């Protein structure tokens, strides 16, 4: 079994990454909230200053995992950080360490830039929390608030 992790920079790799983001949205029952198109995703991940990044995982040549994210300013630190947005491995490829390898790829990006990596996890996702703690991440359980424009008064 061969696992290959690489940063997606070519349009075809970014389309593969988008396909897995779409699969994640379907898996979570959140497809209605996935507003970015494949074309916009690819465009935002390319160029001299990409807005987003993506890593893909292949198992024996088949695309099976993705990690996406972006860089943002962390006000308290006064520095940038790497923000992991999506981490997804298709169900048939779970248990082979692919999620961990994707996390390490994102971690290497933060380490190379000498900035922390941040992400969120649902508090009931005990398996993920165990994994994150096992790799040395500090897990703080916080809720996520989401305020859409149509619900903001004024």
From TrEMBL:
List, alphabetically, the CDD domains matched. NAT_SF (cd04301)
Mind telling me what this protein is named? Acetyltransferase (GNAT) family protein
Q: Any keyword Flavoprotein?
A: no
Q: Name the species this protein comes from.
A: Kordiimonas lacus
InterPro entries membership: Acyl_CoA_acyltransferase, Diverse_Substrate_AcTransf, GNAT_dom
Keywords for the protein's UniProt record, in alphabetical order: Acyltransferase, Transferase
The Swiss-Prot or TrEMBL record annotates one GO molecular function as: N-acetyltransferase activity
Would I find S-adenosyl-L-methionine among this entry's keywords? no
Q: N-acetyltransferase domain: which residues?
A: 3-154
What's a Pfam family in this record?
A: Acetyltransf_1
